[in-house]
Amino acid sequence: MLGSLSTAATGMSAQQFMMDIISNNLANVNTTGYKQSRAEFASLAYQDIFTAGTPTSQNTQSPTGLYRGHGVRTVATNRLFTLGNIKHTGNPLDLAIGGDGFFQVQLQNGQVAYTRDGSFKLDGQGRIVTSDGYIVVPNIVIPSDATSVDIAPNGTVTVMGANGTPTQVGSITLVKFLNPAGLNALGDNLYSATSASGQPIQGVPNQDGFGALRQGYLEMSNVDIIQQMVGMINAQRAYEFDARVIQTSDQMLQDTATLKR
Predict the structure, then answer these.
(1) Contact yes or no for 154/186 (Cβ under 8 A)
(2) What pLDDT score was predicted for residue 162?
(3) pLDDT tens readout for residues 22-71
């Protein structure tokens, strides 16, 4: 019975972790470019009382064995990089990636981070930056006399000057990873590469498997609210069942302690 107490406790801990993941997904349901996470679990070690195939007599053997599990553990938080809904904004500096790829931004320490959030702005020097002021890589400067900005699906940035002459001022490139789930989430819609994600593979939008850029659009969160609500109900019920196991085991121990000869 003491084993059931610790086993049920691991289940409660796992379901609490599941609720933490779900709550973060729901909190970011309107976060631009957010990718929902999923908790993954594995069973703990088993205690083999005897294994399948153990002889039970001179001519027979056990067909199944006898063992007891010791609960569950959380093994991974897997981020799902499926494409979110594309929302029209009309802002010429808003960009959505219609497929694979990440934008590159330079942090204050010089490190390059990666994002799916294309809600870009101009800073005081005309550079294209994120909402937090991080410079988009490669650095593209929009002239102060530009009357319009056009960003093609392949990332080419063209501005219309005051004299009506179009001028190409640069091209936005993308990167992708062999294992995007291995990226390290930094917060602020940013990721950094790890040994698990692999090194960034740079390319041109709308070519070689990279998604095309869509000017005037933003990719919204890919959180499925209904799926998250169902997961929350399942986690709540499983938590309640594990708590009931602890209560029942405690009552059985109490009954055993009060036995009289």
Answers:
(1) no
(2) 79
(3) 999 999 999 999 999 999 999 988 887 878 877 878 788 878 878 788 89
pTM of the model: 0.86
Virtual CA dihedral for 75, 117, 200, 21, nearest 10 degrees?
Answer: 0
Q: Which of 76-85, 155-164, 186-195 comes out lowest in average pLDDT?
A: 155-164
pLDDT for res 41:
94
Q: Say what the pLDDT of residue 261 is.
A: 57
CA distance 106 to 137: 7
Here the tokens at position 112 are: 């390059």
Whether the CB-CB separation of 114 and 201 falls below 8 Å is answered with no
CA gap 109, 192 in Å, rounded: 13
Helix (H) or strand (E) holding 218: strand 217-219
Query: Which DSSP string corresponds to 120-160?
Result: -EE-TTSBEE-TT-PEEESP-B--TT-SEEEE-TT-EEEEE
Specify the residue for token string 């063209």. Answer: 158
Three-class secondary structure of residue 260 per DSSP: coil
The residue type of 233 is I
Starting at the edge strand found earlier in the chain, the sheet holding 190-192 runs 121-122, 128-129, 135-137, 103-106, 112-115, 190-192, 184-187
State the Cα–Cα distance between residues 15 and 28, nearest whole angstrom: 20
CB of 171 closer than 8 Å to CB of 138: yes
Residue 63 preceded by cis peptide, ω within 30: no
